[in-house]
Each structure stands twice: as structure tokens, then as C-alpha cells.
């Protein structure tokens, strides 16, 4: 791919309230699953950087945690990740769902964006779940909230208006260099993504409160000499003994379900057979322990 005088590039922060579909949207835009997805809050805990490259330009997406009030040190870290994402961005993608009013949480985001001075594109996601009239009303309502570069309705789940949104993004970025090789999709390591895939399965299969207190560590990840299989050992960290029992389940059934789901996703990612072994450990109040947060990857990499 040859760069030309009109090649555009830059960083785009994706922000919004929990469960508006930021990670699903990012995966759709880059055409590959990198970020985990769940209907539960706090699915994304740290910035995930992915890259979309075409002949016209390169977009570096910064998927950030859902905007929510902090209740512990992990929450503080997540808010800092959003703040840093906005600060690093050339453009902010603010993702919302169609609604008949702007919630208090959305108003707080709007105020934060006004104060940031950043260019903002509003993405109204999940339009496949609403009527055209409801979507048009939402567009009219949000027009008065902020001075947007564009307002683009999409369905990340149905891949509706993907090309239109990418076109708007690239045309809005400044002329610039190719920051990453054209083959790069993410700087996330395979270990980091595999840990998140395990957490994704826990989010999907466990009772709603338990996953908030879960972290995942990849203990070992080693390809066998014949190159036909990777052995992975990982530990699910939880905060209470009672949660450990629920995660393991009767006769180990729940842990097996989590492991099977994660293994299937890992094999898609790594394109090789995976032998996955899961363990569960209790680390009380780890979300308020700065050293543990750092060990589990919830600290600034820079």
C-alpha cells in the first residue's frame, strides 16, 4: 500500500454509557473480534487499541470502558482510561442508543465532551431494534445537545452503515502518516486477548453480580513442538469463597462450561487447537488493591 498526499490518519476514542455496544461496534469496524462482548456492565475495563487501514487512511480506535461512577480503585482506573482516551484522540465517537430523552448520564458525557474541545461524531447504535420514527426523533433530540461533526445511525450487530461510518471517520481525520503497518489490527498480545476471552465467558454464564469481581491471569501459554496444539493454563480470580464455589459449579460443571466456550473462541483467534486448563483462586478485595490491579493488567502501560 502506497501512502499518498491525501492519506488521512488519526486516533478515534470510542466512549459511551455501559452496554451501548462500543466493543461490538469496534469489532465490526475493524472486521475482527478483539474486544469481548457482553450485556453486563464493566465488560470493557481498559482501553483497547485496534487499527483499521485502507487506501484512503488509517484509523486507530481506542475502545474505552463504559462511563459510570467509580466505587473502587478499579473504577477509578476505568474512569482514567476514558479521560486518557479522550485526551489522546483526534476525534471522539460518542455511542448512544435511540431514546426519547437524554439521560443524566448522557448529559454528563456531553458536558465532558464540551469541555474537552474535541471534535465529536455521534453514533446512534442498535437502530435495528427501533422504528425509523424513533431513530429520527433521537437524531433530532441529540442535534441540540452538542455541535457534532456528523450523526450516523448504525447497527453494529447487523453491520448496518459500517462503510458509511468509516467514510465519515476517515474524511474527518487530518492528513497524516501511517502509524502502524497495514497488517496490524491490534497491539493487544495473544495472552491479553485470551485472558479477556475467558472473562467474556464468565460474564455470559455467571450471575450478574459475580463477574464484576473477576479477573483472569494467563499462567502459561506454550505451543507444543509439533505446532499442532497450544497448552494454556489460566486462573480466574474472584473476591469471595462463595463466588469460587459458584464459578466452579457442581462437580466442576460451570468451570467446564466457561472453559469450553473460551477454548472455542481461542481456537478461532489463534487458528490452532487449544488445550485449556482453568483454576480458581480467591483474592479478597483485589479491586481496591493497587498492586493486584497492576498484576492483573489494570495499570497504565505507558
Instruction: Tell me the span between the first and last alpha carbons.
Output: 30 Å
- Can you tell me the residue ranges where pLDDT is under 50 for at least 5 consecutive residues? none
Over the alpha carbons, how many angstroms does the gyration radius reach? 20 Å
Strand order of the largest sheet: 2-3-1-4-5-6
Q: What spatial form do the alpha-carbon principal axes imply? A: globular
- The class by helix and strand makeup works out as alpha/beta
Largest sheet: 6 strands, mixed
Q: Which range does the strand content fall in?
A: 15-25%
The total count of strands amounts to 9
* Discrete helix count: 9
Share of residues in helices: 25-40%
| Arithmetic mean pLDDT | 89
Order of helices and strands: EHEEHEHEHEHHEEHHEH
